[in-house]
Specification:
With about 90 residues, this protein is α+β, with helices and mostly antiparallel strands. About 40% of the residues lie in helices and about 15% in strands. A two-stranded parallel ribbon has the order 1-2. A two-stranded antiparallel sheet has the order 3-4.
């Protein structure tokens, strides 16, 4: 990710937060992307970095064990990044 992309993403996240919106970054595939989003206080992320698509049976088992869903909280230099994993059934 180059500085131009980082600047655009950072400004979009900042603008959304100014409007009191929650930001979900989709398509996160690398540790570098995840760490950058944490540093700029993105609220939620989803993508292959967190989970690949899972078969229907596995998704049903997971949801039955976690009826309220799952939130992972990662602390990065004083900020919290709420991480949500999408379950994609194929």
């Amino acid at each position: 990710m180059d500085r131009v992309h980082k600047a655009i993403i950072g400004n979009v996240v900042n603008m959304a937060h100014t409007m009191e919106m929650t930001v979900v970054a989709e398509g996160v595939e690398t540790q570098e992307q995840f760490d950058f989003l944490a540093r700029i206080c993105c609220d939620c992320v989803q993508g292959y970095f967190l989970s690949w698509p899972v078969p229907e049976e596995e998704a049903v088992r997971f949801l039955s064990r976690h009826p309220q869903g799952v939130r992972l909280i990662r602390h990065v230099k004083g900020a919290e990044l709420l991480t949500a994993t999408s379950l994609i059934v194929y």
